[in-house]
Structures are given as C-alpha cells and as structure tokens.
Amino acid sequence: MLDDYSKFMYAMAPLRRPGILKDLKTMGSISLFIFFITLLVLGRQNEYYCRLDFLWKNKFKKEREEIETMENLNRVLLENVLPAHVAEHFLARNLKNEVSHLCISSAP
Fold first, then answer.
1. Which residues contact 26 (CB under 8 A, 6 or more apart)?
2. Which of 24, 48, 52, 73 holds its CA 20 to 30 A away from the CA of 100?
3. 69 pLDDT exceeds 60?
C-alpha cells in the first residue's frame, strides 16, 4: 500500500525529493527507530534521576540521624559538667539564638 502511494506521489515529479525520502517504508522505519531510541534515552534519564533522588534521601536521613546523635551527646556531656537545670537553660538559650539568627539572616 505504501509502495503504491509512494510511486503515485513521486511519479509526477521524480527529481523533487532526492534519495531515501522517496521511500515511505524506509522513512517510516527510520522515524520509528528514532522514536524508539528517544524513548530509551528518556527512560534511562528518568531512572537515573529517580535513583539520584533515592540516594539523596538516604544521605539526608543518615545525616539527620548523625545530627540528632551529636545533639544528644552534647546534651549528656553538658549535663555531666553542669547541673541539669543550668544545662537546660544553656541549651534553650542556644536554640533561641539559632532561631533568631535564622530569622535575621532570612530578613530582606
């Protein structure tokens, strides 16, 4: 069917479209091949970004756990050096300073 259509279309003006563009079967095959390769590349790219996102989430989770461990260790060490109510006051003051520092740095 495509051969007949191709012959009909280009029988009147054979020199208008040179080479491989005359054959519709070949052009269809090339188009499908390019489409298939594009889908493969996009699939691999999507898989790469999903894996990268997964690794970043795991890294963030581990870092967060390390931060919590260090905070707890600092609290225990501070409570060993100072009385508990003084250590709490000191730690609460540091937290308040960190929050106010963040508010000041984010102000326009």
1. 20
2. 73
3. yes
Running DSSP on this structure, what letter comes out for residue 92?
Answer: H
R_g (Cα) of the chain, nearest Å:
34
Angle at 107 between CA 103 and CA 108, to 5 degrees: 170
User: Any idea what DSSP says for residue 21?
Assistant: G
Question: Which residue is associated with the tokens 């269809």?
Answer: 28
Residue-level pLDDT at 61: 95
Contacts of 22 (CB under 8 A, 6+ apart): 6, 10
Report pLDDT for 16. 58
Residue that the structure tokens 């756990």 belong to? 65
- Whole-angstrom distance, CA of residue 19 vs CA of residue 85: 88
14: helix, coil or strand? coil
Distance separating alpha carbons of residues 98 and 108, to the nearest angstrom:
18
**Band (80; pLDDT cuts 50, 70, 90):** confident
Global pTM reads 0.51
